[in-house]
Amino acid sequence: TIGEQPACTGWEPRLPRLLDRAEADAIVVIAGVDELGERQIDREWRSLGDPLYDGWLAGELEAMADTLAEPGVPVLWATVPHTRMPGPDGDWTRLPDNDPARADRLNELIHDTVDGRDGFQVIDLVAAMQELPRGGEFSPNAREEGRTLSPGGAENLAGWLVPQVLEAAGASGSDSGSDSDSGSGG
């Protein structure tokens, strides 16, 4: 059994209907940092790197990819940058979610999910975050609380992301090329 939060499961049944209504020219998937945390599986708390957790999450990613797959609609799936969220005492090094190995493992699972799927591509959000001005991915100019993009960080990353979305949408045969929708899972 897997412990699930209602906030994380409530969007899943609605996703196909949302996609149908959106008539998207392209889909962007950016994972939330919650996947870097722990989940209760078989009454034990587990995280990325644990074979049971990895197997469960790989299945979830595959199911999402199956839902998102639609001929002619490209899916751009972003890698997950390392985090420095404050721990209970404010020290980011004491929060296990910040272990770089967790983000690295999630990125491996993302690559495994996307590789070989027609119309899917991995976009390197990790590299884009490292290139942000004034300190890169961990700069206070880029993120708030080590996890959420600041307004400046979001603006910089939009400048990196939008051309990729437009290129992918144009390559898909879309005649508008300018209307792009993005999605994010919890």
Keywords:
single chain, 186 residues, alpha/beta, three-stranded parallel sheet, two-stranded antiparallel ribbon, 6 helices, globular, disordered C terminus
Task: Summarize this structure briefly.
By secondary structure, the protein is α/β, with parallel strands linked by helices. Helices cover about 40% and strands about 10% of the residues.
Structure description:
- The protein has helices at about 5-10, 15-20, 50-70, 100-115, 125-130, 150-170; strands at about 25-30, 40, 45, 75-80, 120-125, 145, 150.
- A hairpin with a 2-residue loop joins strand 2 (about 40) and strand 3 (about 45).
- The strands form 3 sheets. Strands 1-4-5 form a 3-stranded parallel β-sheet, covered by helices on one side.
- It is globular, with a radius of gyration of 17 Å.
- The protein is about 40% helix and about 10% strand.
- By secondary structure, it is α/β, with parallel strands linked by helices.
The largest pleated sheet is described as: 3 strands, parallel
Strand arrangement within the widest β-sheet reads 1-4-5
Indicate the proportion of strand residues: 5-15%
Helix content: 25-40%
Q: Tell how many strands the DSSP assignment holds.
A: 7
Give, in order, the helices and strands. Answer: HHEEEHEHEHEEH
- Class computed from helices, strands and strand pairing: alpha/beta
Q: How would you state the average pLDDT, rounded?
A: 82
Which residue ranges are poorly predicted, with pLDDT under 50 across at least 5 consecutive positions? 172-186
**What's the total helix number?**
6
Tell me the quaternary state: single chain
Global Rg: 17 Å
Query: What characteristic shape results from the CA principal axes?
Result: globular
The end-to-end distance, rounded to whole angstroms, is: 19 Å
